[in-house]
Amino acid sequence: MPEIKPEKEILSTEPLQLDAFSLRLKLALAFAVLSLLPFIFIAIRITGMGRYIAELSAKGDLNNSALARAVTEQSNAFIVGSIEFSIVFFILVCAGIIFADRILVGPLYKIITWMRTARENKFAALAPLPVQSGDEWGALGYEIDQSIKYFQEVESRERQIAEEKGEFISVAAHQLRTPLTGLKWTLEVLRDPSTTPESKAKLLDQVSGTTERMVRLVDDVLDVAKIEEGKFGYEYAITDIIGPMQHLVNDFLVVGKSRDVALVFEHDEDALPVYVDVNRVTLAVSNLISNSLDYTHGGGRITLQVERAGRQVRISVQDTGIGISPEDKRRLFTKFYRGESARRMHPDGSGLGLFITRNVALRHGGDVTVESEAGKGSTFSFNVPLEKADMGKVEVSVGNFFASF
Amino acid sequence: MSETSATDFSGKSILIIEDDPLLHSLLADKMKQLRDKGVKVFPTMSAEEGLKQAQESKPDLIMLDLVLPTMDGFEFLQRLRAIPGFEKTPVVVLSNLSADTDKERARSLGVIAYMVKADFSLSEISAAVEQILQGKQVSPPKPADGTLTKTPLGYMTYL
Fold it and tell me: Which residues of A touch B (CB under 8 A)?
């Protein structure tokens, strides 16, 4: 898988240069000014005191030597005390600067460096979060980390969708080319005057099956596209389900006989009204039966069963086919996915049928359940409601294939 | 046709491996027209059957489909090349897979030509087969409208 490159380089390669008045510098300046404040204050007080002493001595009051000594001692003590206080204050301020830098600016720089590294690596390998503290920086780092992971997830999903689409196009091209080749070659033979009328008739028979296959493939592709866009509409009504299912089984009888697979329809009641889009349900069941036919060997048996289950009706298709391995079961309803043994037995399937069937089940308030044992056979079933009130919550996914998983 | 119609291919044989029933019968019927020139045709519907038939009849040319049930065409080629005497048997791939990776993989397994089925008519295929049986270096048939451009590997490529 080649790396997807944006048309224009979105990310700048140059880091943003911090201007001269970075946060760290501003903080240092503020603390420097603060630490000088006591010195200024003390200097003003000492100057004032000096002026007072000068005034006293001018008046001659300082001739009293005892008072003069006392004043000098007091002022000396004040000066020493002030200097001591200023030094202690300065040390406290320094500690304050370091502390503030540690808790405020330091983590910020760590987050910046971490994001810059992530960006330079195109967010490929995200380093663990640098700030684990429970404070606001920790919260900010967490939010950034989560946002990056969210967009990474979105991007990888988009890439997966793109890959699936690419795979689908190549599968569909192959699938369409094979019947088209059949048509092309058949026309060539029909046009050949040496072809006998008997072989012409035989060819025309064969070719009609081929065109049917193409029509079905194109229908499936369009249905899947509609599901993806959220435009696969449903028209629910109270309708009998037994009649349409009987018709469906009858339609498959010829193919079943040609492959020596018995088709059985089991139902308790002759008519059973349910609240469904009968065309969609018929399509879903038809996909299940045609899958079972493809993966059941001659001599096998397929049973379609319609039975009441409380306020629901359970529709199930059981076969004695090749079964599904546990790992295939997990991806079974993914578009275009085809099990290993399925690909081996029928290389031409499109891998779209079950995706459509599951959408039908979901839109009737249920889901498709699968019971299967490799080599023994599989049972696919889903429920439809008797009345509108019995329908479970219907998840309608619009344009998001992942919302249904 | 006038040049090749006189050619005698007696003793030559072709093995066909194609699983799609319609394509199988069309291709087999077309190749059987070469019987008049002495070519024996062995049509088979799976790679397993093809391997067995190849060892029995030692064909001069194998026409191989790639997407086959149980064993695909690539695996067939790997197994065939491992059998003594089949290292150089000419194989023409006739498949509707057209990805470059598939063509490269077939090329690495020593096929002499890779033809995308949908791009050729039965007569073109038949003409190419005749030329290969004559041991000729074959130029790719010209597209009918002359405007189609095909990748070198999309055409018949002789390796």
Answer: 170, 173-174, 177-182, 184-186, 188-189, 199, 203, 206-207, 209-210, 344-348
Q: A126 to chain B, minimum CA–CA distance in Å?
A: 33
Helix (H/G/I), strand (E/B), else coil: A312:
strand
Q: How far is A256 from chain B (nearest CA, A)?
A: 17
The one-letter amino acid at A104: L
Q: Phi, psi at residue B41, to the nearest 5°?
A: -120, 130
Q: Are residues A223 and A355 in the same domain?
A: no
Whether chain A has a CB inside 8 Å of the CB on B20: the answer is yes
Structure confidence by residue, pLDDT tens digits, A249-293:
998 998 888 889 999 999 988 889 999 999 999 999 999 998 898
DSSP 8-state symbol, A194: T
How far, in Å, CA of B71 to CA of A345, rounded? 10
Q: Are residues A394 and A246 in the same domain?
A: yes
What is the tally of structural domains in chain A? 3
- Fold (CATH) for B13-133: Rossmann fold (3.40.50)
Q: What is the ipTM of this complex?
A: 0.83
Check pLDDT > 70 for residue A343.
Answer: no
> A196 is written with which tokens?
């006998």
- Kindly report the pTM of this predicted structure: 0.62
* Alpha-helix residue ranges (DSSP H) falling in B2-86: 21-32, 47-57, 73-82
Q: What's the CA gap between A288 and A354, in Å, rounded?
A: 7
